[in-house]
Amino acid sequence: MPPHPKDDSYEPASSSDARSPCPVLNSLANHHRLPHDGRNITAPQLRSALGSIGLGADVSALLVWRAFTIHSDDSEFGPHGSIGGLRDATDLNAAGEPVLHLDKVGRPHAIEHDVSVTRQDRALGDPIPLDPALYEQFLGSTPRGGFGVPELGRYRKVRYAESLKSNPSLKFGRREHYIACGELAVLRCLFGEGAGKGIPKSYLQALFGEERLPLEEGWRPRRWVKAFLPEAAAVILGISRYAWPF
């Protein structure tokens, strides 16, 4: 049985479906490349879904390993920059396999962080759903048609300054900075249209606004040359150069 339907049918989430703060993971569930209810996702399903949109096997393996690590709230994986896992030890399916539920991607003291480009800081509101005002601000942050490395990095720096001013409980250090730059780097690698064009705004509207893969807008996943770790690392460093706030 294939890991996901081949017709890429899109079905928005219902109120009973589990979803995360990550629009890409949510889009994969909405396209049935992950279980549509967002629950009981196995490691092979997650690797397959990430590979289906062009992510290299090394990056996919790293992300899946981290996601399937058992979550901890101890002092090492605390609120000041945890990259702790997302699962509880009891998150198993009927066959006894470890599984991931999308609503645990946004749990505190894990990979979720303040200074999101489209989500509220935890101290200021719910960090899971899209914040319409931040979303519109993000889309309007560049007069150009595409979002390249400089635009993404500069906007991250703008968001940091805003959170620093409005959130007295801000938790955002170097670890969170690189996690945040990594999130945008993956978007740039997977959905960018080339070195000089960046990510088209219409792709971001589909991903963030509708949590839908931008297939209707003309995007096609990278099949022959996927986004491997050396490329992703270079893009992370490039975004960080423009976003560095410390």
Layout of secondary structure:
Layout: H1 23-30, H2 43-52, H3 57-67, H4 132-139, E1 146-147, H5 149-166, H6 174-191, E2 199-200, H7 201-210, H8 229-243
Antiparallel strand pairs: 1-2
What is the CATH topology descriptor of the largest domain?
A: Chloroperoxidase
CATH superfamily of the largest domain: Chloroperoxidase-like
State the shape: globular
How many helix segments?
A: 8
Look at the structure and give the mean pLDDT.
91
**Main sheet properties:** 2 strands, antiparallel
Which range does the strand content fall in? under 5%
Just name the CATH architecture of the largest domain.
Orthogonal Bundle
Q: How widely separated are the two ends?
A: 49 Å
Helical content (DSSP H or I, runs of 4+): 25-40%
Gyration radius, in Å? 17 Å
At the first level of CATH, the class of the largest domain is Mainly Alpha
**How many discrete structural domains?**
2
The low-pLDDT segments are 1-6, 77-82
H/E topology pattern: HHHHEHHEHH
Strand order in the sheet with the most strands: 1-2
Query: Which structural category do the helix and sheet elements fall into?
Result: mainly alpha
Question: Can you characterise this structure?
Answer:
The chain has helices spanning 23-30, 43-52, 57-67, 132-139, 149-166, 174-191, 201-210, 229-243; strands spanning 146-147, 199-200. It is mainly α and 246 residues long. The protein folds into 2 domains: 17-110, no CATH class; 113-245, Chloroperoxidase-like (Chloroperoxidase, Orthogonal Bundle). Residues 6-234 form the Heme haloperoxidase family profile domain.
